[in-house]
Amino acid sequence: METTVDSIITRELIENTISFEEYTDLVQQLFDEDRTTNEDNRPDMLEYTKLNIHRTSKWNKRARISEELAQELKNFPNRMTWLVITEGWCGDAAQSLPFIHKMAGLSDNIELKLILRDQYPEVMDEFLTNGSRSIPKLIALDSETLEVLGTWGPRPKEIQEVYMSERANPEIENKVASENLHLWYARNKGKAMQEEFMQLLDEWKKNEPKTGNR
């Protein structure tokens, strides 16, 4: 029997998701026990988690949603669920999730729900990025039918192209590419991401189901 997105993203799965607040509490609780969200408890993964707790906390306090986007979110007419695939050690998730949380909170029609990538590989494998299990990945769902309206992630297109180019360049160390990536996040302050969501909200408003693996 062929596996489809409809058979994987079920009402039962949605009911077993966690909120943003539950997720941040979980990441902190596990870190306090020298653990990560996928139990890869090596020192470097714990260090990534520590950094990401700080990044998430920073953006929870400092992230600002533009007035234009805020208005679009407040006026969004359809009920949507934003299902985000993430992990506590993921640097891109720490940079983006606080903005996603604040965006969802501005709309009465958008619910934000999170799952951990390595607990739901069957979901992740329907939403790969160039064949990779890259996170965070936001899946926009019609709340009534659970049809996929579209996706976003793992990072804004502007920096995605730069980062992938640097990772493919043998003259640039992966560590340097990562440092450049997080410097960009610090300087951009969520602006590129919000510009993308302005366009995406318009597309999702049309309520046209999309397939995965994009």
Automatic annotation (TrEMBL):
Recorded superkingdom: Bacteria
Which InterPro entries does the record cross-reference, listed alphabetically? Thioredoxin-like_sf
The protein depicted here goes by the name: Thioredoxin family protein
